[in-house]
């Protein structure tokens, strides 16, 4: 008769692979003494495991590097207009969707911010929302996995891009250009730009810019800036 | 002092950063380091064995195209396993060849007499073929966990990260897979 103790059944593999802690393993072995059905299952799994450990590991018979390299060179030599129409379309669709989302978020934040008389912050007044942002230092941003972050640093340079967005660099130490991140306030610019040399806390979306001439981590779009020290 | 693991991780990070800006030697190094494991996973995940080498090439091209977006949130090998398995899954969905059931190859097992093997090498090749076919006959979800565990030697947690599921799910799939393998190979117990 099948054993009704689902907890024991779930632990068959962990027991056989030695992944149960000693206490749980002892409990499991005590149960095995009393349960013929579980003993039978464990014996079958052990046999299956013996077969599985003999599965051969095949090795590739050909070296495909030359073909891969040729394909890479062919791709990099294609002018943008001749790249796969599907991939370009998908890229533009993604960019368009991201822009719309970013604009909607910015619009929502501005709407929420309207009418506030006690505005300590540039873009947003809802402390509860800000507390949901993951605090990450500039140095730790590459290891961050959370989408919404808050990071603190000194504003080292500020510029207005030709497309109307505003970017500024944030550094740990005002006298050291590295490590840095780039923060981007997307147009229309509704967040007052921070002063160069000031220490600020920046709230926004964490991302990595993998363009060959960039290769840096960003907070993009910036959703809010708090001035820590002018 | 940094451990050997720390060194290899920082070494891998440097390698990926170089590859992300298109350094050809770094791309080659990634290919050399990961080719065998991608090949093993593709070999056991693809329903069409003749296409293994072609799919391997496609996977590396996909890896290189996606590399600029790799953000070190997982080990490079975990990320590569994921791309390889997804590509095999997509490939299998696009193309569903007729499969030869294991029984057609194995028979009942009664007719096989180990004493009749021409030589040991032939017997070993046959055992390999039978085991490979037993794995290939598993449903794809069960096949992946068996290969990642027993061919690649990954832990439950590592497999869970590759397959993006809970370690408990890995254990339960492994259990189902091994029971199926035991059932299929039981007649050949004396040979294997």
Structural description of this entry:
The complex is a heterodimer of chains A (230) and B (192). Chain A has 230 residues and is an alpha/beta fold. Chain A has two domains: 6-52, no CATH class; 83-230, Beta Barrel (OB fold (Dihydrolipoamide Acetyltransferase, E2P)). Chain A is built from seven helices and six strands, in the order αααααααββββββ. Chain A has a five-stranded mixed barrel with strand order 2-3-4-6-5. In chain A, β5 (199-209) and β6 form a beta hairpin. Chain A is elongated and about 75 Å long. Chain B is mainly alpha-helical. Chain B is built from nine helices and no strands. Chain B is globular and about 55 Å long. The interface between A and B is large, with 41 and 51 residues.
Observed structural traits:
heterodimer; A: 230 residues; alpha/beta; OB fold (Dihydrolipoamide Acetyltransferase, E2P); 2 domains; five-stranded mixed β-barrel; 7 helices; 6 strands; B: 192 residues; mainly alpha; Rna Polymerase Sigma Factor, Chain: A; Arc Repressor Mutant, subunit A; 9 helices; 70% helix; 0% strand; globular
Number of strands of chain B: 0
Total discrete domains of chain B = 2
Average pLDDT metric of chain B: 83
Question: Termini separation of chain B (Å)?
Answer: 47 Å
The CATH class of the largest domain in chain B is identified as: Mainly Alpha
Q: Write down the Rg of chain B.
A: 19 Å
Largest sheet of chain A: 5 strands, mixed, barrel
Shape of chain B: globular
CATH-defined architecture of the largest domain in chain B: Orthogonal Bundle
Layout of secondary structure:
The complex is a heterodimer of chains A (230) and B (192).
Chain A: H1 6-10, H2 12-16, H3 22-34, H4 36-52, H5 65-77, H6 85-113, H7 127-130, E1 134-135, E2 148-160, E3 166-171, E4 180-185, E5 199-209, E6 216-229
Parallel strand pairs in A: 1-2, 4-6
Antiparallel strand pairs in A: 2-3, 2-5, 3-4, 5-6
Chain B: H1 4-20, H2 24-45, H3 52-66, H4 76-94, H5 102-106, H6 120-136, H7 140-151, H8 156-163, H9 167-185
